[in-house]
Amino acid sequence: MRYPAVLKLVRSLCLAGAASTLLLSTAVFAAADWAPSKPVRMIVGFPAGGATDLVARIIQPKMSAGYGKPVIIDNRPGANGVISNELIAHAEPDGHTIGFGHIGTLVISPTIQKVPYNIHKDFAPIGLVVSLQNIIVVNPTVPAKNLQEYLALAKAKPGAMLYASSGSGSPGHLAAVLLESMTGVQMTHIPYKGGAPAITDLIAGHVPSFFAVISTGVPHVKSGKVRAIAVTGAKRAEAVPDVPTVAESGVKGYAATNWYGMLAPAGTPQPIIDRHNRELVAALKSPEVIQQLKDQGIDAAPTSPAEFAKFIAAEEKKWVPIIKKSNIKVE
After folding, report:
1. Which helix (H) or strand (E) segment is 262 a member of?
2. Separation CA 321–CA 61 (nearest Å)
3. CB contact at 8 A, 198 and 166
4. pLDDT digits over 287-301, tens only?
5. What is the pLDDT of residues 242-299, one digit of tens each?
6. Nearest to residue 315, comparing CAs of 44, 106, 131, 81?
7. Which domains can be identified in the chain, with CATH numbers?
8. Cα Rg of the chain, angstroms
9. Strands 97-102 and 257-265, how do they pair?
10. Per residue, what are the HEC states of 206-221?
11. DSSP summary character for residue 256
C-alpha cells in the first residue's frame, strides 16, 4: 500500500462522520419523542368558574392522559389576562409551562395600553383552542325583554345603563363598545376581574347588565336567574337557540366573537411545541370534549401552531383599527 497514512486519515474521518451522524440522529429522535418530566403548568388568566377556566378544566383530563403527567391549572387573574400572559412570556421555555391567550391579551390590551410582553416576540403559538360568542344578559328586574327595549332604556338616560365585563379591554368590553358605536347609545362600563365575579354581582342586582362570555351566562339563563337579550356572533348559539343575534335584533352587520388559544414561552423547541399541539388537538377532537363545550355554547377550533399564528395576525388586522377608532380606555 503506497499511501497508508492517507488511508488511515480517510478511515478516521469516515468513522468520525458516522459517529456525528449517529449522535445527531439520536438527538433529533430524543427531541421528537419529548415528554414532560414533571407536571405541566397551565396558566389561566381568570378566576375559577370563569369561561377560560371552564375550557381549561374540560381539556385538562385528556391532556393529562396524553402526557402521562398531570396538568395543573394555575389561575392568575387580573388585568384581563395580561398578568397571566406575562407569566407565560417569562417562563422557562422547557415545555412545562403553557397557558391561554385570547383576543383581549393578544389584540385588545396591546392596542390600548403598554403590556409587559411583545406578542410577536415573547410567545410560541401552540394552537387555537375554541371560538365562542358573548351574550348580553340582564338582571330579571331590568324592564327589557329584547335588544331594542334594552337600547331604548340606554337611550332614554345616556350613561345611566351600567354594563359589566370581565375586564377593561376584554372581548365583552369590545362587544359593548362596538354596539355603542353602531347604535349611538351611551352606557357606562363596570370592569370586573373575570366573568365569575361579574355574573355573581349581576344575579345579586349590583349591576343591571353584563356582556358575558356565553359559557358564563348560559347556565344562569337556563336557570332563570338572568335574562338573555342577544348573542353577539354572526349566528345563534346551539346552547340557547331561542336567543337572537344582535344583527337579527336590528343592528345589521354587527358581529363580535371571542376565542382562546394556547401559548408557550418563545424559545420553546419546536418538537416540544408539536407535542403540546398534538395533545391539544387530540383533546379537542374527543367526542366527549366536543359535547361538553357545545353544552356551554362553545365550539372546539383546533389548529396547527402555524395556523394559529396566522389567525392572530388576521385578528390584529381586523380589530386594531376598530379599537383605535372606538378610543377604548383602560379603567
Report:
1. strand 257-265
2. 39
3. yes
4. 999 999 998 889 999
5. 999 999 999 999 999 899 999 999 999 999 999 999 999 999 999 999 999 998 889 9
6. 106
7. 40-131+258-326 (3.40.190.150), 133-231 (3.40.190.10)
8. 24
9. antiparallel
10. CCCEEEEEHHHHHHHH
11. -
